[in-house]
Amino acid sequence: MFKILKIRGESLTPEYNQGDYILVITHSHTIARLKPGDVIVFQHPVYGTMVKRVEQIDPQAQEIFVVGTHPQSLDSRQFGPIPRHWVTGKAIWHIANRDGSNRAS
Length: 105
Description:
Elements: E1 2-6, E2 21-25, H1 28-32, E3 39-44, E4 48-58, E5 63-67, H2 76-79, E6 82-83, E7 87-95
Antiparallel strand pairs: 1-2, 2-7, 3-4, 3-7, 4-5, 5-6
């Protein structure tokens, strides 16, 4: 199954900007084969839906260390690794907002 998600925030700038869209695959087989560098969507119990890049996977603990590219990104450097079962999808396509009208200034 697929879904389209609008990027909100600046945690993955400059590659993914506020107002851009990503096509996300939610199939469990794809989620099971994540690797460093993948962009994932997950549900954090405090911060809600988040989009981050996988930096490291601990297969024994079933935990994923996720990061943003923006220096002030809220990510695993602050809240620690996330359990794999929080992951709801993997971004497979990036649709840039061409006019920039939804980007933060």
